[in-house]
Amino acid sequence: MQENPQHNPWAPLDLREPRGWATAAKLELAREDMDECRAVLTRSEVTFTALDPSGEGECRREDRMTLSDAALTPGSPQMTCPVAIGITLWTQDLEPLATDILGSSIARIEQLGTYSCRRMYGATTGNWSEHATGNAIDVAAFVLEDGRRISLLGDWEEEGERGEFLRAARTAACESFGTVLSPDYNAAHADHFHLDQGRPPMMGACR
């Protein structure tokens, strides 16, 4: 177990380690405890800036931070710590997918935003969106080191390597986020992945 801490339920979680038998339980603890979540990022040498709470009512954000070194553009979106963990893990999974399928690493991930004080789909009634507390991020495209841009809107239906990569990216996201919605889910997601941490992976939606 000492040589494989990812299998040891008592070993502190480090996001740089491979996933193991105990990883899911450790990630769930980090999602439920903001102090533990931030400790995981620090231990994993993920640079972040913790921000003061903001907002009120359903849009009150107690957990608010930015990631310093993430390849997101526009940069420095405000997010919850669980979303920061999800982005960190997903980015690690994306790199080998990009090089294996597309022959190039990822330079930037184009995001459409994290925080929006609104209900789901902008409705006037009903459940509040995970975006209302910054517990979600929408991703529209990937820019490769060789200059190519792979977008959900333009390439999701493509039968070659571009579409293959996007579908693999969705599958990988389901390992790190509680809910993953893609163009296959409905027309509202035709141009982006919706990724949130409202529920733990395997209990949320992956569509």
Shape: globular
Helix content estimate: 25-40%
What is the number of E strands?
8
Summed up, the helix count is 5
Summarize the structure.
The protein has helices at residues 23-32, 34-43, 81-102, 152-155, 161-173, and strands spanning 48-50, 65-67, 72-73, 106-113, 136-144, 149-151, 179-181, 193-196. With 207 residues, the protein is α+β, with helices and mostly antiparallel strands. It has a domain at 63-196: Muramoyl-pentapeptide Carboxypeptidase, domain 2.
How would you explain this protein's 3D organization?
By secondary structure, the protein is of the alpha+beta class. It has a domain at 63-196: Muramoyl-pentapeptide Carboxypeptidase, domain 2 (2-Layer Sandwich), CATH 3.30.1380. 29% of the residues lie in helices and 17% in strands. Strands 3, 4, 5, 6, 7 and 8 form a 6-stranded mixed β-sheet that branches. Helix 3 (81-102) links the parallel strand 3 and strand 4. Helix 2 (34-43) crosses helix 3 and helix 3 packs antiparallel against helix 5 (161-173). The relative contact order is 0.13.
